[in-house]
Amino acid sequence: MQVVKEYSGRKLREVKRRLVHGCSKRVDEWIALTQTGLGQINTAYVERLNATFRAFLPSLARRTRNLARTVERLAWEMFWCGVVYNFCTVHTTLEGTPAMAADLTDHAWSVRELLLFSPPPPEPLHAVL
Fold it and tell me: What one-character-per-residue DSSP string does the chain give?
């Protein structure tokens, strides 16, 4: 999806939304599932996520001398950035963390608590069946 904003000086004149890749029916289904009321293509969530990654990860800044070196390292950095953002970073608009808003936890975690967390072992397959 792509949102193109046209300005006249500093004033927003027009917003064009278009699907660049994918199926418009599938996009409509996702909009119906994730938005209330009449929904439309919106890139705000992706833009916010990109800004968060650039703020937390120096290797993703627009101009930097700090390179990620490998794709694997960048993937791990992005994973930990997402975990810390969702479990440890309190958002005033949510009155807690995103993980709290999604009912994944009942409190904001400290980074220490996050690093020391050990998930329970998975149940044996025969117990599930």
Answer: -EEEEEEETTEEEEEEEE--SS-HHHHHHHHHHH-SSS-----HHHHHHHHHHHHH-GGGSSS-S----SHHHHHHHHHHHHHHHHHT--BTTTTB-HHHHTTS-SSPPPHHHHHH--PPPPPPHHHH-
